[in-house]
Amino acid sequence: MTAQALPAQLAAIRDDFLALEERDRLMLLLEFSNELPELPERYRDHTDLFERVEECQTPVYIFIEVEEDRSVHIFATAPRESPTTRGFVSIIAQGLDGLSVEEALDVPDDFPDSIGLRRAVSPLRLRGMSAMLARTKRQLRERAPQ
């Protein structure tokens, strides 16, 4: 999949970041941290279903749901006290939610590098976002009906 073939919502996110000066990209990431969707009621008491993203120093948990029509729903938690990490998980959640399993699996593994944050955040944080995407794809492979 080429950068131009990204699903529309991920392409829009990438383009929003790349349209900004480097110094302003971190502010957009912080805006995303405030937009991480709350967990639906049915999962608030079942966080045991969520998988910890061990590569992140901050406790990030994700859970993937695949509908019968193969559409993807991503649920995630990250502490408000870690806005950079929370912003990354929000990008993954918003960018992949509603896609088909195939579209989500086709997202390039290097998507986190494509949004222009290499100089704004540490390599460790970028690896954490890559790990979030990798774990999301692994859960999709496990949960998607063949």
Can you walk through the features of this model?
InterPro entries: Fe-S_metab-assoc_dom. With 146 residues, the protein is mainly alpha-helical. The protein is built from six helices and three strands. Strands 1-2-3 form a three-stranded antiparallel beta sheet. Strand 1 and strand 2 form a beta hairpin. The longest helix is centred in the C-terminal third of the chain and has 21 residues.
> Beta-strand level of the residues, as a percent range?
5-15%
At CATH level 3, the topology is: Sufe protein. Chain: A
| Mean pLDDT value | 91
In quaternary terms, these chains amount to single chain
Q: Please summarize the sheet with the most strands.
A: 3 strands, antiparallel
Distance between the termini: 22 Å
Overall form: globular
How many helices in DSSP terms?
6
The overall number of domains is 1
Mind telling me the C-alpha Rg? 14 Å
Q: Using DSSP, what is the number of strands?
A: 3
> Which sequence of SSEs, written as H and E, runs from N to C?
HHHEEEHHH
**Residue share in helix:** 40-55%
**Strand order within the widest sheet?**
1-2-3
Please mark out the parts with pLDDT under 50 across 5 or more consecutive residues, or reply none: none
Any idea of the CATH class? Alpha Beta
Classification by helices and strands: mainly alpha
Name given to the CATH architecture: Alpha-Beta Complex
Family: Belongs to the SufE family.
Protein name: SufE family protein
InterPro entries: Fe-S_metab-assoc_dom
Domain Fe-S metabolism associated: 16-138
